[in-house]
Amino acid sequence: MKIHTYAVLKDYFDKEFTIDERVGTVEGLHNFLAQRNPAAVTILAASRYAVKDNFVGDDFVLNTEDTIHIMPPSSGG
């Protein structure tokens, strides 16, 4: 799985990275990443996950070939 992070999440994870673990769902990915970096738990919980240009929910089933974009909330000016 290829993961892309944005904004403040880049303070906790690389901008792009891959994982080989089978996490099952978006919720499983969230839990995996929270274990990998516990300091990111709060921002991960507030973030949205997208696969194939669509936002997906916690129960969305992930495939090993998916590219996941994780976007934290942001404010513009």
What does this protein structure show overall?
It is a single chain. The protein is an alpha+beta fold. The protein has a single domain (2-71), classed as Ubiquitin-like (UB roll), CATH 3.10.20.30. Helices cover 22% and strands 25% of the residues. It contains 2 helices and 5 strands; from the N terminus they run ββααβββ. Strand 3 (48-51) and strand 4 form a beta hairpin. The termini are far apart.
CATH level 3 topology: Ubiquitin-like (UB roll)
- Can you tell me the number of structural domains? 1
Give the radius of gyration: 12 Å
Average of the residue pLDDT scores: 94
Provide the CATH architecture: Roll
Helix vs. strand class? alpha+beta
Got a strand count? 5
Give a brief outline of the structure.
With 77 residues, this protein is of the alpha+beta class. It has two helices and five strands; from the N terminus they run E-E-H-H-E-E-E.
Brief descriptors of the model:
alpha+beta, Ubiquitin-like (UB roll), 5-stranded mixed sheet, single chain, 77 residues
